[in-house]
Amino acid sequence: MAGKKNGGLPRRRGTAADRRLRARGAKGALPDKLPLVHVTAVGIAREIVAARQLQTSPCPVFGKVPLLYFFVLRPAYRRKDGDAKSHQINRFPFVFILSPDAVPTPYHVYPFDTGGAESGVFAPQADPHDYLEDYELAPSHEAAVGHIGWAFATLDAYFEGELRRDILDGVPQHETVTRGFVDIARLARTGSNQPDKRASAVEIATDQNVPLKGNVLLAILPKQYLEDASVSNKQFMDRLKAEEVAWKTYDWQPNTAPNEFQEEIARIAKKWLSDNKLL
User: Fold this and answer.
1) Predicted local distance difference test score (pLDDT) of residue 3
2) If DSSP codes are grouped into helix, strand and coil, which group holds residue 207?
């Protein structure tokens, strides 16, 4: 068996998955549940706010069930065309931070972005002889936190993508899925040649729509989408207020690239999480 032509992890068909990575979970002193983060584009977020809910959509990876995706705690994102400059504010990031109770029972939990794994984004590090399904954790918040506790030990280290230095101590060479996760997750380190925080951001998916009211703790969006040239976007702000969504802003500039704002958005999210004792 070999990997897919695009370098993505192959899919398991009709055979039992390797669950040794799942068994490694150990949350230690971490909380039972952690906030969830959904990153989208401003243009899509406008429709989400109008609909008053985050909605599931057909999934190109798993296909059978429409899904809605989140990362645990971390505002990780990298748009496919996100390195291209644009003057259109609709293309730029809009972040929703939600209570974990927004997803009572996850549909699935993975230790990285499954879209990136399937499309070959992690191909430089991924073991082409392990299956995507082998990396699946138990479908629960506790499993997500347990994986973070084992792989990172602290929430601050997880937020920064810094794995435990001794993570592979005692992990035998034949435990290839566990070692394969570590290889992929190292792409999220600050010192990586091509850092991509999605490589170790724990993914939670749900097959249910999620109302904004009562679930969204914070939105992060471009300052200029709310007010520009001394003109306020009152209608949109009123809709956010109606859904009880608080917000923070980043300073957008035209003819920049969406991916350029990753560090600033992460800084805003980290400070807010820390101030609210969620990190």
Assistant:
1) 47
2) coil
More confident residue, 73 or 63: 73
Which is nearest to 180 in space by CA: 111, 118, 119?
111
Say how far apart CA 224 and CA 250 lie, in whole Å.
9
Please tell me the pTM assigned to this model.
Answer: 0.94
CA distance 254 to 10: 39
pLDDT the model gives residue 2: 45
Q: What is residue 220's predicted lDDT score, i.e. its pLDDT?
A: 98
Non-local (6+) Cβ contacts of 177 within 8 A are 18, 20, 21, 130, 134, 135
HEC string for 98-147: ECHHHCCCCCEEECCCHHHHHHCCCCCCCCCCCCHHHHCECCCHHHHHHH
Query: Cα separation of 177 and 20, whole Å?
Result: 7
> Tokens representing 122?
């992690």
Dihedrals phi, psi of 265, to nearest 5 degrees: -65, -40
